[in-house]
Amino acid sequence: MFATLKFAALLLAVVVCWATQDYDYNDAEIDEEPTLGDSPYGSLWPLPQKVQISTVVFKLSGASFHIFDAKASSSGASCRLLQNAYRRYDEYIFTSSRKQGQNKSKKALASDMSELQVWITSADSECDSYPSVTSDESYKLSVDSPVAVLKAPKVWGALRGLETFSQLVYKDEYGAKSINRTDIHDFPRFAHRGLLLDTSRHFLPIKVILANLEAMAWNKFNVFHWHIVDDPSFPYLSRTFPQLSQHGAYHPYTHVYTPSDVKMIIEFARLRGIRVVPEFDTPGHTQSWGKGQKDLLTPCYSGASPSGSFGPVNPMLNTTYDFMSMFFKEVNTVFPDAYVHLGGDEVDFSCWKSNPDIQKFMEQQGFGMDYSKLESFYIQRLLDIVTTTNKGYMIWQEVFDNGVKLKSDTVVHVWMGNKVEEELQKVTEAGFTTILSAPWYLDYISYGQDWQKFYRAEPLSFKGTDAQKKLVIGGEACLWGEYVDATNLTPRLWPRASAVGERLWSDRDVRDLNDAYSRLAKHRCRMVQRGIPAEPLFTGYCAHEYKGV
Amino acid sequence: MFATLKFAALLLAVVVCWATQDYDYNDAEIDEEPTLGDSPYGSLWPLPQKVQISTVVFKLSGASFHIFDAKASSSGASCRLLQNAYRRYDEYIFTSSRKQGQNKSKKALASDMSELQVWITSADSECDSYPSVTSDESYKLSVDSPVAVLKAPKVWGALRGLETFSQLVYKDEYGAKSINRTDIHDFPRFAHRGLLLDTSRHFLPIKVILANLEAMAWNKFNVFHWHIVDDPSFPYLSRTFPQLSQHGAYHPYTHVYTPSDVKMIIEFARLRGIRVVPEFDTPGHTQSWGKGQKDLLTPCYSGASPSGSFGPVNPMLNTTYDFMSMFFKEVNTVFPDAYVHLGGDEVDFSCWKSNPDIQKFMEQQGFGMDYSKLESFYIQRLLDIVTTTNKGYMIWQEVFDNGVKLKSDTVVHVWMGNKVEEELQKVTEAGFTTILSAPWYLDYISYGQDWQKFYRAEPLSFKGTDAQKKLVIGGEACLWGEYVDATNLTPRLWPRASAVGERLWSDRDVRDLNDAYSRLAKHRCRMVQRGIPAEPLFTGYCAHEYKGV
Lengths: 549, 549
Fold this sequence. Notes:
Number of helices of chain A: 17
Largest interface: A-B, 47 and 47 residues
Oligomer: homodimer
Radius of gyration of chain A: 25 Å
Largest sheet of chain A: 8 strands, mixed
Number of strands of chain A: 18
Strand content of chain A: 15-25%
């Protein structure tokens, strides 16, 4: 029952503050099943900031209903982004019903909803821009007969509002597409709502990446953190250094992302209001770089002679920095986003320690035995290099912890599971913006409804001033690649990532598990109907089950 | 590297006994990663009982190679089961290479392998029979140029041998289909190698069931334990009692198995040497039965009046037994297997206790306050009913534990995680055949390589005589349906169930984790190439990644 779209007994409802306690990150109690029962908010996910849904119902006819640019809109037919979105949402809304040959000339009835007008209110719609961390994603949606109006300052808000509109449409008991009179004023709680996918531990075919970008848009995510290379493989085909993927990818042709693949992914994401932030993690996690780039990695020693294996990037050679300069110059041209993620996590010092040249270098630099100083030495030079390309950078928390001097616009990425609140306190006290991933490592699976654990996490529960809290610009769900590839990534990700999506978009007080369960079960069935194999939350069914295997 | 099929450096190898210790059921240490490194047995899975692989390599040409009935075979072109299998394995072996338009008239070269002759040696091939627990699945496979010969007493062994043959074929470094001179003598360690799927908690579309039957055959499973109905839904469309699915299924048309669906599944399974054992679990787990069948379930009471909710099957009414007689008469005609699973697990007594009529009945029968006696009373009568249909039955262990009088050919299904060895001891001491599922609940997921835990379990590690051990006829991997449906069932099942497949087929001493890892990684890539989204064991890649999302 919970899996069908029924608003029948819907009462006038406004967003109220749920009186619930805050949970901290380590709360792992997920035993209790939420009880079923329809949410007054139907299948809306993530829940908009302000919603008023009335009992008045309008019908949408596939023959007459259309999405149009409002006359006063600053964005017209030349805006490919919006025109593409109209087509997409028309298909989502009328899947399987328009196909059945209705009369296209049918006139709308009095109680019909005949069109959705999309009205970009600001002079610059940003139609041809890339989204950024400061993009305005707000929108107002007024659903009334015969015309629904979606107002947004920029196209980004229009995209979010179109998704919301599509989520308001349901089939009544006779199968007629219906929508209730509704007023919504919506905007994201956090500006950075990301998803990390790892294409190094397993290669992900383009098709899988695109499908998941699509699902991200349905969940109002706006950052694809592309952990593109790592120890196991280097699938990024660099124009400047093609040997990196030639020798470092699992396969030089079938398991790489060509320049045109990357371009396609970035444009596909842009059309959905999603930034693509690539991560090129150094100096650790770089084994695959060494296969195509001689002398880049530190040779490890076994006693007095090289062991044949390699460690992190070699921080003492000028050639290293020459390479990084050229490499990140290319990255800067290929990836339009204002930020690049530079990694900097989990550097293993044992190889550096074994190498007599490194030991000598440490001595010369006066680092004593403190190899974190060597790490910082490297990172500092790398950051300076990247700064010259005019990119901002994100880094994993260790770089901050080790006291590297960071630009003021650096984003510190908090991922370690212990002392999360202390870390957030420290980072924001130092005045840095930060994003949170620690509670949202979706690669860790367990039996049962672990979406609740992700859902309960609250990014602002740490102690700090209002100014400090404002520095938390969002978070990212991370699906590391050890155990996922094209075969199982998508169902493992959705709807578990949806829980993070609502936490980052909706109001802080939206945390009622029963209400969330009801909406999320419907939302996941909608994802299934749109072709994404989102896994079930629990026992039950969808009217339209997944058609694949 | 481990994901490609390479026999290049293969030495003459025979099966040796790995010197490994036995692990008990509760061993949960799965931290250590098995090291990579090619197995001398290539991608064989499950490992045959006796294998000799030589370094001599033959080529297979898609244009000239064929699978034929041997002239002396008792089974000819009229055996649809074998002809279907030949076509299937021809496709598996030559996928993507025959399509490329080779010259069909090309003659085999001297070093080519030109054909595989399949020779059924026993007078009755059993081509048109259903497989049973006593079916002979043994086969001998001799791969030599120009002809490979597969000898088997029955078609069942031929099916297993065809799979093994297909697993021996690999591409050499030039992409040429190759096979090494090989001698195999193979037979299963256990006669009952089952997989339980649950179509009640989530409905599984036919397509999903068929795909998984296919994968079962690749892993030499031979029993599909169809847990077809349970509390949440009743998707079995009964001819005699159509109201059961009409009211008890999630949806009366889209979420049911019609008689022709069931027939198709049974025939599809038969063609792969797989038995279909349906489970109709009573008296508990029957909530969905009550929706279409009035008075079947026990009304629960709240104080002196009925609460409106229902408990287990009502054991005191004659109508209950009349219903069961008719129902199982139908089951007997629909499902050809000699066994039906009657469930009998997890009966909750609270509803029976609340009901004054039941209380009175308990008194009349002299059961005192022992409700397990009431349960046994019901089960005993049910077993007698089923016995009259000439079916054998399987039951969950509680029925045995409660002292119900069982027919001597009853199969007791051990599933409870605690005291597994004691239970096996007791059941076999009492002279009953038994199958084991306790270590193989695949619905319980955890982070990491849990296939190793399933792989380590040893069914015969309990204390008992040889005669007792012989009563353990096998086991079943169980994938209960709370958290799986069409979106995620298949990748969650494979290759985790493959671990159970090898444990039940191969010699007891086949338990080297490194060797298993190497073979299983290749086996899972083969499953992916054949179209099943089997999930990865760990970081790595397949030459042909999954094409779906």
